[in-house]
Amino acid sequence: MGKFEYSLGLNELKSKEQRLWQSLIGEFMGNLILNFFACGACTQIENGTFKALAFGLAIFVAITIVGHLSGGHVNPAVTIAMLVAGRISVLRALLYIVFQCLGAIAGTGAVKILLDEHYRGSLGHTALETHVTELQGLGIEFFLGLVLVLTVFGACDSNKPDSRYTAPLAIGMSVTLGHLGTIRYTGASMNPARTLGTAFATDNWNAHWVYWLGPILGGVAAALLYTQVLEAKAPPKNTEAAEKYRTHADEREMRKLEGARDYP
User: Fold this and answer.
1) Engineering a disulfide at 219: which of 23, 147, 149, 165 sits with its beta carbon 3.0 to 4.6 angstroms away?
2) Sequence-ordered list of residues with C-beta below 8 angstroms from that of 79, at least 6 positions apart, any chain
3) 19-262 domain in CATH 3.40.50.2000?
4) DSSP run (H or E) holding 113
């Protein structure tokens, strides 16, 4: 029962050390920051490069602020990928997704409330280009989820400790890259919660399933690919040096004992 309780995450409700509530606030805040600032940027200009930088910087800032609390998922696709890889419990994953969605809705809602209707436009809502079918959009969002989650796993690989110092920047840059490559065709969501926030604010649910299924499938594929093929190997333990140290220590002890026996 204990093992089952641990995999589901029920133990986290009792633990005082894990502080699940702080992690949930972190995920809420991360998505609020993303949707408020990045979607706010979309109301000002139609330039794709400008939007790409806005979303990349927003992710960089959000992970820098809340990464130590929750791991800085800020995306249901990342959370589900972590669940598939066994890095988080079922309960934590479900709660993360709920709070990510609430944060995204709050962020876009704040932009809508604070801006006059004249400035709002589509509030940065993602939509398929006229000649892009839903299946094509699904494929594009799949690859966006794939590259994002591969970056997350690569930047947070415990066997590559140096990568952790640049993880927020690397993940932010992967979001920028995704937008630069595909924003014209699908809006480059990469993040189901981000699109849910704008869909809720604009009441536009066209092809909404694409923006959930695509990034999540891409994220799951990335988790399996990284953990099974690409994960860095743990550095070998320096057993030779340890053995040499023990040999020298033994020799010193033997000399002491011999000296003690020779003493009259």
Assistant:
1) 149
2) 73, 88, 93, 96, 97, 100
3) no
4) helix 90-114
For the chain, how are helix, strand and coil distributed in percent, rounded to 5?
75, 0, 25
Q: Provide the phi-psi class of 125: left if phi over 0, else alpha when psi is between -120 and 50, else beta.
A: beta
Token reading at 212: 């959930």
- As given in the structure block, the two tokens for residue 204 are 């536009």
Ramachandran angles phi, psi of 71, nearest 5°: 95, -5
- How far CA 182 is from CA of 136, 139, 143, 189, in Å, comes to 12, 11, 10, 9
191: tokens are 């993040």
Return the structure tokens found at 215: 């990034």
H/E stretch holding 54 reads helix 48-70
User: Element (H or E) spanning 219, and its range?
Assistant: helix 208-225
Q: pLDDT tens-digit profile of 184-235?
A: 999 999 999 999 999 999 999 999 999 999 999 999 999 999 999 999 888 7
Q: Which residues contact 82 (CB under 8 A, 6 or more apart)?
A: 71, 73, 88, 93, 223
**pLDDT tens per residue across span 173-193:** 999 999 999 999 999 999 999
- DSSP 8-state symbol, 10: T
Q: Which residue carries 């959000």 as its tokens?
A: 62
Q: Distance between CA 209 and CA 201 in Å, rounded?
A: 17
Domain boundaries, the chain: 19-262
Q: Which of 128, 141, 125 is nearest to 40 (CA)?
A: 125
